[in-house]
Amino acid sequence: MKPFAFERARDVDHALSLAASSPGARFLAGGTNLLDLMKLEIEQPPRLIDVGRLPLAEISETASGGLRIGALATNTAVASDPRVRRRYPALARAILAGGSVQLRNKASVGGNLMQRTRCPYFMDAAKPCNKRLPGSGCSAMDGLSKSLALFGASEMCVAVSPSDMSVALAAFDAVAETVRADGSVQRRPVETLHRLPGEAPQVDTDLAPDELILAVELPPPPPGRQVWRKVRARASYTGAIASVAVAGDRVALGAVAARPWRARFTEAALADGASPAAAAGAELAHADGPESRKSLVRRLAADAIREAKEGAAS
């Protein structure tokens, strides 16, 4: 075991000051992703800052008619909240599809968003991986995997975001509110919270080391029906091969990029009156990857859009 320091934050300011003074430190909430990576020696932070007891779990109404979800609200609390189930059902369904009951009871909203983008080779320390060791190579390029990026990938990395929740949040134009040790507060679209890999796939987000997610804010839901679909290798808990969230005229794809992928070409085609199949095809025309995988995502998106349209018309 690699030795590390552990400290429980008394409040947000204390957590931020600890992070600012400890290079390489990581915030710990539910730990459902970080602790697994530490056991595999993929992550080796010198200090863990436990933020799990900070008062950041409230789910409240916003003045605009949306919801503010505290970063430490558990996935179970969000998925079971009557306001989420009634006004953002696609979000509730995405969360319920994203983990076992035990994981949802422990995992936090902020932690879900901060999961490392990954592929099976990232989780195997015996294989070269530019995310783990920059410049070592990308085993996935010539490897076997059903879940590689179709959008926004680079020659350095084809890993994808594992978060189902973020796909639904992206379809709702949700925003993550963060704070740094100097007191500065930022609001970042969940859609772009993670970086595309480019030449530096080891850097997952633009968040500073002392930047903590406080909450996620959802605007009022758009008009129209909401649909969530996910394809996975088995019915029991496992990551997505592909997923799609439809919220009115908005469409987001999951497990196809290093972040939830808003299907802007699809949305534009729908606005022009295209059929669900043609609209889905408009996005996949810009994808790179095996035709079999593109075909799967195209059909999944078309089916979800069709379901949303038929439901709205009935």
Biggest β-sheet: strands ordered side by side in the sheet: 4-5-8-6-7
- What characterizes the major β-sheet? 5 strands, antiparallel
What Rg, in angstroms, do the CA atoms define?
A: 19 Å
**Poorly predicted parts:** none
Number of strands: 12
Gross morphology is globular
Features:
11 helices; four-stranded antiparallel beta sheet; alpha+beta; five-stranded antiparallel beta sheet
Molecular structure report:
The chain is an alpha+beta fold and 314 residues long. The chain is built from 11 helices and 12 strands. The protein has helices spanning 12-20, 34-39, 75-80, 82-87, 89-96, 101-106, 109-113, 164-171, 264-271, 276-284, 291-313, and strands at residues 5-8, 26-28, 47-50, 59-61, 67-70, 175-179, 185-189, 212-218, 226-232, 240-247, 250-254, 261-262. The strands form 3 sheets. A 5-stranded antiparallel beta sheet has the order 4-5-8-6-7, with no helix packed on it. A hairpin with a 5-residue loop joins strand 4 and strand 5 (67-70). Helix 9 runs antiparallel to helix 10 (276-284). The protein is globular.
Topology:
Blueprint: E1 5-8, H1 12-20, E2 26-28, H2 34-39, E3 47-50, E4 59-61, E5 67-70, H3 75-80, H4 82-87, H5 89-96, H6 101-106, H7 109-113, H8 164-171, E6 175-179, E7 185-189, E8 212-218, E9 226-232, E10 240-247, E11 250-254, E12 261-262, H9 264-271, H10 276-284, H11 291-313
Parallel strand pairs: 1-3, 2-3
Antiparallel strand pairs: 4-5, 5-8, 6-7, 6-8, 9-10, 10-11, 11-12
Helix pairs in contact: 5-8, 9-10, 10-11
